[in-house]
Amino acid sequence: MTLTTTFIGGGNMASALIGGRIAAGARAQDIRVVEPLAAQRESLSARFAGLGLFEALSAEAVGGADLVVLAVKPQQIRNVARALAPHVEGVGAVLSIAAGIRTGDLSRWLGGYARIVRAMPNTPALVGAGISGIYAAPSAGGDAREAAATILRAAGDIVWCEREEALDGITGVSGSGPAYVFYVLEGLAQGARALGFSDGDGRRLAYATVAGAMALAQKSEADPATLRAQVTSKGGTTERAIATLDAHGVKDALIAAVRDAAARAGELGDEFGREP
Asked: What is the pTM of this model?
């Protein structure tokens, strides 16, 4: 589908979404980016020939856009929204990918504009393997939902949330989740080095093990607990390893980490929402 899109912010996540859209057949000429940093504009221009690039937000940058994507840090979004407010009326929909910023607060900063969709993508979107939680405000409408889904699917899978609060849970599981996996990779690689393997071989063993286990899980209909049991022989090496993990409360700690990350997402929403 033809989707005229303006990204406000041209960082890594915006670049990933732009790249995914162009790979899916979108024209660079239908995409504009507002990016104040000259070096980043130059990088975007070199990577995506024909992209519309703007140093500052203006009527020209957003006029006629089917979708405006707010791809800036949460600390910046209030000022960006206020600058967008005079130009937003003719915009089809606004998609925010800023963590913690609730649709009600964003609508207030946008002068009452209500066609808002909010999403929580994760960093594997940078290689087209992300997953995003999406919530659409009740007043957003079907076209806004479709436009947001089209943009986010360019970088991976999507999960629709019926309640906005569920995005905090998305943050806890998948938004922050890549760091949990990197943490496991770090531990496996360090364990390999402790057994005498080189840094490079330790990483190769860790990365291939996690990638292979993930591929196996995705091709199986069994749940993770069943898969784990299937590779844990009675009295064997894996059983001893799992017993050690259980003794150290690793699973409980991971569950607590997900809950704490989700709670922090809610706290950020409260903190930013207090701003007038």
From this structure: 0.90
